[in-house]
Amino acid sequence: VIRMLIDADTGIDDSLAILHALKAPDVKVEGITTVFGNASVAQATDNTLRLIKLANPGYEVPVAMGAAKPLTREWAGPVSHVHGNNGIGDVDLPASEQQALSESAAQFIVRKANELGGELTLVTLGRLTNLAEALEIDPELPKKVKRVYIMGGTVFAPGNVTPKAEANFRGDPEAVAAVMKSGLKITMVGLDVTMKVRLTQQHLDAAAGYCRPENKPIVQYMNDALQHYFRFYWQVDNLMGACPTHDPLTVLVARMPWVVRTQTMKVSIETEGVYCAGSVVADLRTKPSEGHEIEVCVDVDAEKIPHHLLSVF
Ligand code: BDR
Ligand code: CA
């Protein structure tokens, strides 16, 4: 069983990733921490609590609220045109009785890593602010975490918020730089692979047919929330009834690393520049010397991903 802690800026694709993890038979979600990004951190926290109620995983999943803004910069505000006014495509899920913990996301990450003695897998789906803060609290954290799967960045593919930068990395470049040089074992699941996968209306319709009866409301929620996301990807990438799968693929890679091909690279994070702040500089020279070594996902078995993602329901 993979003991997983998910850090999310709970928007539409984050919500799919969270539901997948909560229903995957080989995953125990040890907790979910939240961060600003797609929505405010308060909204992301509320969304997360509602999603846990919807999934009803059969065990308790603590939630800890994290950073409301980047380490050193100002936050530009939620991206309602991508994720809706409430972050989850304006779907109104029933409220939860569960409360967030009183400790912060960073404190919670540190506590869990220490409790689980090397068994904790981290999956980050938003800005890396919480993880950077956790590293400040406990500089020994890299020795205690099994591996971090990070949704963010791109090496070969274009950026999505600037020609060169991806949203999660752009949203707090200083945090990404701190995480990359920390010594954590990192697998970067960036736009190089997430943009290659297409989740479509057809996949959802099929899932509505084959899902277990108790998961019908989950599939219905995904269908409703994704309508908003489909509209956005129709506008930016000319996709019809389809979207890429950033955050869900990242959880999947943590479960099934064989669905991607990775390449070990030395990377640095650019923290300056109009276009390049938050972009990944990979040293691809014959004898790389600049940056810190991580695993970068460079290719994916794209056709199989939607089935892997939806068959847990
Ligand atoms: C990332 O940005 C957010 O909008 C998504 O949830 C995903 O984590 C993609 O660049
Ligand atoms: Ca996200």
TrEMBL record:
InterPro entries: Inosine/uridine_hydrolase_dom, IUNH, Ribo_hydro-like. The keyword Hydrolase applies. GO terms for biological process: purine nucleoside catabolic process. The keyword Transferase does not apply. One of its GO terms (cellular component) is cytosol. This is Inosine/uridine-preferring nucleoside hydrolase. Residues 5-304 form the Inosine/uridine-preferring nucleoside hydrolase domain. Coiled coil: none annotated. It holds the Pfam family IU_nuc_hydro.
